Amino acid sequence: MSTSIQMSPLISNAILKETHINIPHKNLNFPKKLVKTQSLRDNCKQGSLKEAFVSLSYILADQNASQDCFDEPYSLVLELCASQKALFQGKQIHTHVLKLNNVYDQVFLWTKLVFFYGKCGVLLDARKVFDEMSERSVFTWNAMIGAYVTNGETFEALELHREMWVSGDSPDAWTFTSVLKACGEVMDICHGRQIHGLVVKHGLFTNVFVVNSLMAMYTNCSDQHAAMLLFDRMAETKDVVSWNSIISGFKANKQSLEALSSFRDMRLAGISPTTYTFVIALQACEESPFVTFGMQIHASVLKSSHCADIYVANALVVMYSRCGKMAEAARVFNDMEVKDNISWNSMLSGLVQNGLYDETLKMFREMQCARYEPDQCSVLSMLATSGRLGNLFTGMELHAYTMKKGIDSDLQVGNTLLDMYAKCCKIDNMNSVFDRILFKDDISWTTLIAGYVQNNFHLKAIQVFREALMKRVNVDSMIIGSILQACSGLNCISLVKELHGYTMRRETSDIVLENSFLDLYGGCGDVDCAFHVFGSMEVKDVVSWTSMISCYVDNQRANEGLSLFLSMIAEGIESDSIALVSALSAAADLSALRKGKEIHGFLIRKGFIKEGFVAGSLVDMYACCGAVQNSWKVFSCVDDKDLVLWTTMIDAYGMHGYGETAIRLFQMMVDEKIRPDHISFLALLYACSHSALVDEGRRYFKRMICEYKLEPWPEHYVCLVDMLGRANQLDEAFQFVESMEVEPTPAAYCALLNACRIHHNKEKSDLAAKKLLELDPWDSGNYVLISNVYASQGRWDDVEEVRAKMKEKGLKKDPACSWIEVGNNVHTFMAGDKSHPEADKIRQKLANITERLEIEGGYVAQTKFVLHNVDEKEKVKMLYSHSERLAIAYGLLKNSNRTPIRITKNLRICDDCHTFSKLVSKIYGCEIIARDANRFHHFVDGVCSCGNFW
Description:
mainly alpha, 6 strands, six-stranded mixed beta sheet, disordered N terminus, 51 helices
C-alpha cells in the first residue's frame, strides 16, 4: 500500500533550506516503524534537529494517523527548536499547525509556542500567541511570565502576574518562583512580600524551590535578615540551592565573614558543595584577612571532584590575585589542564593589580603563543600595563589592534587609551583618542583633565574643566582633585577659592576633598583659610589633622603646629607615621628637644621606627635641636641606610660646623657603593662652607661634575660663593659668579653681600647690592641685608634711602624672634619683649647677668653692631634687649639642673650677642646651644664651636 506524503511547502522549505535533507518522493512506500513517534523522541533526545525534522515529516505523511497523534510530535520538535534557538524552523512548525489545524489539544501546543518564542527572545511573537489564546492553563501563564523574566522584561512579568490574578487563574509553584525572581531583579520588596503572603496562603511554604526563590528575592532586596529567617525555618528541607542562596546573599551584601561561616556550616551539615558554592565562597575570600580561609577552601577543592572545574580554578586565581598572592595564583593557573579567556584575563588583571607590569607583558606573550586571541578585557589590562611602564610602542600596537578589531570605539577602551597616552606623555595622541570617543562619559573628561595635570599642562587642564562645565559634565571629587593639582602647580590661590566655593554650593565636597583644600591652602601660604576649612569640617580624620599641622610647620608657625599635634593626641586620634613626622618637623623648627624625644618614644611604641623616612626625620630633628650625638645614635641603629638617611646625617654634621666629620661620612657612604646625588653634594658643600674648608669644597665641587657627571644646580654655586666669601676670597667669589654657566640667582648675590659686610668691602658691596635688587626687587630680606651692610659702614643716608624704597613698595622687615623650650612649653621672645607673663623677672635676671659679665668677664657692649643711627646710650639699650638674650636669661632663671640651654633664632645672631653668649657659658658654667638662620653655635666654657666663622 502506498502512502503519499502531504507536507506543507513551508515545512519542506525549512527542511531543505536549513537541514539539507532529501525528502523521499511522495509515491514511495515506507516501513511502518519509520513513522513511529519513538523515532522522533530519540532524535530530539540526541539534539539532532535535522533528523527530528525527517522523523516529523514521516509522521505527518501518515494519512492514517489520528489527529491526536500530532500534538506530541509538534511539541517535541518545538522544544528542540527552543533549546537550540532555531527560530526559523520553529516558525515553520507554527505556520504548518495554523494551516492544517490538525491539533487536538490547542492550549497545550499554543503554550509550547509561547515557550518557544520566549526562549528565542522574540517576545512580541510570544505575546501575540498568548493574547490570541481563548483558553489558557497555568502553564501558559508560566511560559509567558518566564519569557519576560528570562529576557529581562521584569516589569512586564510582574504586570502579567497581576493580569493572571484578575483572570481568576490560580498560580502554582513555578509561577511564584518566576515572579519572585522578577521582584528580586527590580528590588521590589513590597511586591515580593505580597507574593510571600500568597505562597503561605496557597500552602507552598514547604516547597523547597519556592522557599529558595523567596530567599533569593530577599537577598537581592538587601533584606538578609528575612532571608535568614526563612533559611532557619527550613529545617530538614534545606538543599544545596538553599545554602548557595544564603551564602551568595551574604556575599552580595558584603558580609564576607558571615558567608564563609555559612559555608562552613554547610560542610558540617554534610551538604556537598557545587561548583557555584565554591565560586561564591572563594569570592568571599577576595580580601587579605580571609586569605587563610581561601586556602582552606582550595584544599577542599583539591579533595573534591571539582579540582579540574575551570570555573572553580578561575575563582581561585582571582581570589589569590586580590589577596596579593600572585605566586599561588600562578601555581593554580599553571596546573589548569584547560584554560579559557577568563583564565588568562584573570592572571593578567591580577598581575596589573599587584604592580607586576613586566610579568604582565610576559604573560600576554604566553597567551598569544597559546593561540588565545586577546579580547577586550586582555587589551584593557595591557593598556594599563603599557601606561604604568611608559611603554609607548606596546601601547600603540594595542591601539592599532583595537582599531582592527573594531573595539576602539568602546567607551572603556577609549578611556584606558586616554590614560595610557597620558602616562606616556603623548598629549597629541591623548587628544586624538578623546576626539574619537563619540559618547564621552564623566570618566573620559576626568581622565583627560588628569592627563593634562600629570604632564604639567595646568592651564590646559583648567580650560578643559571649564569646557566640561559648559557641557554639564557631572563634576565629582576626582575632577576637582585634578584641578586642585593644577592650581597647586600654578600656585593660584584665587582659583582654589573659586573651586572651594563651587564645591560648597554644589555640596559635592567630602572629607578627601576637604583635606585637599586644606593642604592646598597651606601650600599657597594662606594659613587662615586652611584653618577655616579645618575648623568647619564636621568629621576630621588623621589626614585632616596632619595636613593642618604641616600647614603650620611649612608656614613658619611651628609652635601652633606642635600645639595642634598635642590637641590631636588629646582628642584620641590615632596618629600615623606621617602625622608623627610632621610633629617632628615642628619640634625641629622650634628646637624643642623634649617634645622631640616624646615623639621619638611614641614612634618606638607604635613600631614606626623601622620605616626609613621616619629615621631620617629623627636624625634631622635631633640635629635641629642641637643634639647631633642623638642623631648619630639613630643613624647607627638603622641597618639598611638609604641615600636620604646618609645625606641627612651629613647635613646634620654640616649645620653644627663639623665639616671634617661630614666629609668622612660622605666617603663612608661612597665606600658603601651608594651613589651620591645633587642633594648629597649640596649638604657636603654646605658643611665645607661653614667649616672654612675651602680647598675641600673646591675639590668636591669638581668631583660632582667630572666624576659623577652631575650638572650643578644654582644652590651648588651659591654654596661655593658663600664658602669663598666667608674665607675673604672676594675677588675669586665675584669672578666665580660672573663665570657661572647658569644665570646667577639672588641667593648668590646675597652670599656676596654678606661676605662684603663681614670683611668691610664697600666697593664690592655696592656692586652686589645693585645686582641683587635688579634680580629680586620684591624680597624684603634683600633690602634689610643691604641696609645692614650700609649701616655697618656708617652710610646712614644710604640706609634711609633703602628703607624709603621698602616703604614705597609696602615691604616690611621680619622682626627678630627667639624660642626656648622650658618644661612642656616653648616660649617665644621678640626684641625688647614685655609680653611674657614673667617679663619683669626676666629683665631683672638679664640685668644681673649683664652686670656680672661686666665685672667678672670684662664685657663691654659693642655698639658698632647696632645698625641704627642713634646715640650710644640707646645703642647699648637696644643690644641689651635682643631676643636671644631674653631667652638665655629665661633659661638661666628656670634651669636648676644645669642642662644645656637651647635657643633658636629666626635671624643671624649678632656679633655682640655672640660674645655675650660665650661669656655666659664661661662665667655661669653652662652650655648654650643656639641655632640661628645660618648654623648652630655650641657655647662651652667661653668658646663657640663656630670658631667665630658664621
